[in-house]
Automatic annotation (TrEMBL):
Main subcellular location: cytoplasm
Keywords: Chaperone, Cytoplasm
Family under the similarity heading: Belongs to the GroES chaperonin family.
Name of encoding gene: groES
Descriptive protein name: Co-chaperonin GroES
One GO molecular-function entry: metal ion binding
Pfam families: Cpn10
Localization in the cell: Cytoplasm
Oligomeric form and interacting partners: Heptamer of 7 subunits arranged in a ring. Interacts with the chaperonin GroEL.
Function, in words: Together with the chaperonin GroEL, plays an essential role in assisting protein folding. The GroEL-GroES system forms a nano-cage that allows encapsulation of the non-native substrate proteins and provides a physical environment optimized to promote and accelerate protein folding. GroES binds to the apical surface of the GroEL ring, thereby capping the opening of the GroEL channel.
GO cellular component, one term: cytoplasm
SUPFAM superfamilies: GroES-like
Amino acid sequence: MTQTKKLSIQPLGDRVVVRPAEAGGEKKLASGIILPAEGKEKPIEGEVVAVGPGRLSDNGIRLPMEVKKGDKVYFKKPWDEPIKIDDTEYYILSESDITLIKN
C-alpha cells in the first residue's frame, strides 16, 4: 500500500473513507472499459483513512465507531463509484458495509 496522505475531509455520521488496496479483481482496459472479475465478487481490501463521529441512535445517543483510521478492512464493492482526490481513489462507505477488520 502507498503511504497514507493527510486528507482534509471529515465524513459525517457512520461514514468511513477507505482507500482500496486494489481494484477488487477488475481489469481496466486502455479504452477505459472495466471488465469485472469472474464469478462471485470478492471482498475488497482497503485502509481506513477517515472516520465519521458515529451515527445517532433513536434516542439521540452518539454510537461509537468500531473502525478507526489506519485499520485494514475488507468490504463488498459498493454501488457508488469511488471518489478521486489527488489521483487516488477512495470509497465512502457506511460502517455496516465493512465486513471485517484485519488484525
